[in-house]
Design a protein that fits this description.
globular; alpha+beta; 25% helix; 4-stranded antiparallel sheet; 4 strands; Alpha-Beta Plaits
């Protein structure tokens, strides 16, 4: 499983407009193949709102195919004009439950 985390920073005074655009976009967008789950969160930081999008994908190839050639770049369709900065992280999942974390054993690194 792949976790994709995208952060975007926008001015507080644009928050209502951007959230309405996000709601409309989410309602009209079909389910993407390979997308297991999605959340959009926010936090206030100084005079800005940080948006954090977290999506979970079956695998990296399916995610890349669904998102297109710019899959390694942060993307906020229709919102880029409102953002002052954006980043993306793509992570490989090593556990999906608390029980699995307890079963992980450190790899011998030769030390």
């Amino acid at each position: 499983m792949i976790t994709r985390i995208t952060r975007g920073v926008l001015d507080v005074d644009r928050e209502a407009e951007v959230f309405e655009s996000l709601r409309q976009g989410a309602a009209s967008r079909p389910q993407l193949p390979g997308l297991l789950g999605f959340s959009l969160s926010r936090m206030l930081q100084d005079r800005a709102v940080v948006l954090v999008s977290v999506s979970y994908w079956t695998d990296i190839d399916t995610m890349a195919a669904a998102l297109g050639p710019g899959w390694q770049q942060p993307s906020w369709p229709g919102l880029n004009e409102h953002l002052t900065g954006s980043t993306v992280e793509i992570l490989e999942t090593v556990a999906t439950s608390f029980e699995e974390v307890g079963q992980l054993t450190p790899q011998d690194d030769g030390v």
